[in-house]
Amino acid sequence: MIVRKTLFTKEIISSDERGQPCAPITRVAALAVVQNPFADTDQDDLSELFEIAVNLGPVLSAELVSMLSGPAVSYGKAALVGMAGAMEHGAAVLHPKLGAPVRAAIGGGAALMPSNHKVGTMGDRIDLPLGHKDDPWSFNFIDTMTLSVADAPRADELVLCIALSDGTRAHPRVGARPQGK
């Protein structure tokens, strides 16, 4: 596994889009730019990509936990695959092995980790979905972080993204679990 670079971002939200103050919400994200070993190849066995999550997941997650102001209550993951790769390469990095190290770092998480993956070019943005770590029906915690790396992914790279938050959206008004769910 060749990691070209890692980036960390921290947002502290103290008001909504209209300027109404709210209790501070911290959202943090880690992005790792990694060489895609299957760029320009047609490969059925993608298990080598699982190891990216096994190796980077614990390290990135631990750093993110240290950046939060409070305990993590929501999480999400995303992958942006360079043009010589396939969308399935992003899925292979995210799905089979990334959830466990993130859950271990935050002390649990019963809900499926929301995710997104796509093929793109350098500087493209990816919308990383966030959801409550224990209750997928907690609508107030459904959110998005839009992330990008100016010089990645190159055609033969992928960008692995993990995000955590210690709060809801600013002034959520949608509610929690709908009746009957």
From TrEMBL:
SUPFAM superfamilies: BB2672-like
InterPro entries, sorted: AA_synth_put (IPR009569), BB2672 (IPR035936)
Top-level taxon of origin: Bacteria
Protein's recorded name: Peptide synthetase
